[in-house]
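Sample pair:
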Amino acid sequence: MTLKKVLFVMFSFICSSLLFCNENMSFSLPKENWGVTVDLSGFSVLGNSFGADGIERDISIEAGEKISGTLSIFLSDESPLECCDNFINNFDLQNNNVIYLNQSKMDDISYVYYDIETLNGDFLKGFACFVGTESRNASIFLLAKENALSFLPMSQKILMSFRIVENYQPQMNERIVLGKYYFENQDFFSALEIFDPLLKNSLLQKVLSDDDYRDFINISSSAYNVVGVPELGIKLLDEGICRLPEDSTFYYNLASMYALYGMEDKVISNLEKAYRFKAKNFNFAYLPNPLQDSAFQTFLMNSDNYKEVSNLVDWFAAP
């Protein structure tokens, strides 16, 4: 291998590592140009949820069976210290027994460690950390079982890495999350503004797992279909099949798009492949019943089409 090729491979690996494998994970709100970074190595990110028209966000995290928590990003007029004080004062509204509490501050971060006895008689260790600037705020809450030895080092790692980031530039996985927010709120054009450059990124195939890739391709193709360019959605699904040739959802969604064109042969052939691979790979995603799917209703107005799809559904015992 020539020196130039070696350097190219090394550079590509370094860029990929910096962009997608950095332990300091970054998060933001959909309509804001700021975000937060925090070292969540050792934690699993379990889910994301948005509220209040996208100006609040909660990310649930977990470290094994002993530590769980939430990263929250929100707009607020309160300082980190005020947020921390309010958190502590809320203990008075609960029946939990606070055994130990230590509040402190470091730079623009306020935080508190505490031990509590719950209503069930369990003893837990807690950590709450607040960071903010003007109206931009974020917080992390951790709860751990009493014997969670990794609780203190993990909370200290979070404390030292937790930062507000101005002029935020989301990484690829974060852009996908933000695009999904728009998609789920039926703002398909905004979703595609985020998705389109990602789909053209040569690193996409390498970065996403099969499950994440399947989800992203199906959502993106659906968005293209909704905004009136199903040919781009079909192109995406064909690309998806090149990577996952036995994915039942890709074939089903292809069939639904071809139904819009009234292309009978392609509708039936793709539906048949969808249910055949679903039967073969029973752990794959649930498929709708095309007889009840609005995407097929015009296609099914033809009695011959209805009979053929109905026979197909009965043959594979579709739910």
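The longest strand covers residues 123-133.
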